[in-house]
Design a protein that fits this description.
NAD(P)-bd_dom_sf; binds uridine-5'-diphosphate-glucose; UDP_G4E; seven-stranded parallel beta sheet; NAD; 327 residues; two-stranded parallel sheet; binds nicotinamide-adenine-dinucleotide
Length: 327
Amino acid sequence: MKLLVTGGAGYIGSVVTRMLLDAGHRVTVLDDLRTGHRAALAPDATHVELPVHEAARVLTPDAGFDGVLHFAALIAAGESMVHPERYWHANTVSSIALVDAVRAARVPRLVFSSTAAVYGNPVELPIPETAVKAPTNTYGATKLAVDLVLTSEATAHDLAAVSLRYFNVAGAYLRDGLAIGERHDPETHLIPIALDVAAGRREKLQLFGDDYPTVDGTCVRDYIHVADLARAHLLALTAAVPGRHRIYNLGNGSGFTNRQVVDVVREVTGHPVPVETAPRREGDPAELVASSALARQELGWVPEKPTLTDMVGDAWAFYRAHVLGQS
Ligand SMILES: NC(=O)c1ccc[n+]([C@@H]2O[C@H](COP(=O)([O-])OP(=O)(O)OC[C@H]3O[C@@H](n4cnc5c(N)ncnc54)[C@H](O)[C@@H]3O)[C@@H](O)[C@H]2O)c1
Ligand SMILES: O=c1ccn([C@@H]2O[C@H](COP(=O)(O)OP(=O)(O)O[C@H]3O[C@H](CO)[C@@H](O)[C@H](O)[C@H]3O)[C@@H](O)[C@H]2O)c(=O)[nH]1
């Protein structure tokens, strides 16, 4: 297929781009590098340095794209509570412009990066796709809005749409000397920050809140390996059906508290990783754990690296090689 990948210079988009190219697809990456890295761009993909809202300049009716995978977004839930307008523009307004371009160019399929953050504090665990959607942060709300746009678009205009609701993505894609991993700047995610501490780049980790209604008072999250997540996108591309908007949760179905995650980082790195308790981060739901039964059933998705030790181990291997330059 000829595919447009938005956000292909970012963490997840660059892993998926690599897998798409290796599977024989032709890929154009649309990314304005606002948070991504030029070095993460696949050398055998075409790169167009444009913002998503200008996608129509690339997605012309003559260009012959078979599909779009839409990763480009602002992703920090905490920041979205402080600067919500940035999130509505970057995530929702831009996505509507992209969907307009997809319709105008008659691109048949679109796969969208949705999120566990659409659910808010869940009333049932593990969370199925049918659960109540009540986001506790603006980031989740901006993504839920795009999911709703895609449902109408699929129904009214025959788009084959798939939303993949990722839970917490971790790890790195390591293969034959290649390593693609997480490099957000500034970093806000728990595992890479804990690795910064293990590497001696930060003194300690702040744990945001220890009074949540969970086993040790810290938030619970469900982690998914970035390579397992990436494979789900290739499956979704072929499973997409015209006129349908399919939605799949992607996680492993096991919850880890933030303290348990830090324990795994200590085991993997051999570093004590000191922590201090800090106030809650606004907008954080207490617990997010996925039911991915539907993805397993309908996409035939089976995670190959479901353990947190594997994820942290791969993230640490990437970190040492590419952030500390110890390869
Ligand atoms: N990382 C996670 O744990 C996680 C979990 C759930 C969902 N997601 C979703 O997955 C997607 C990818 O996340 P990531 O961790 O790879 O993020 P990332 O920040 O590493 O990558 C995002 C990429 O999109 C580009 N970009 C952002 N806005 C753009 C715009 N308007 N125009 C052009 N380029 C733009 C950035 O330059 C960057 O390269 C996002 O949509 C995010 O919401 C991520
Ligand atoms: O220095 C830190 C960083 C994070 N946390 C906590 O660790 C947990 C996980 O936080 P983080 O790694 O930032 O991920 P989330 O906020 O859960 O969000 C991620 O996972 C969501 C899906 O669950 C996605 O939608 C988001 O894009 C992605 O950033 C939360 O309780 C945070 O408060 C800390 O205690 N200290």
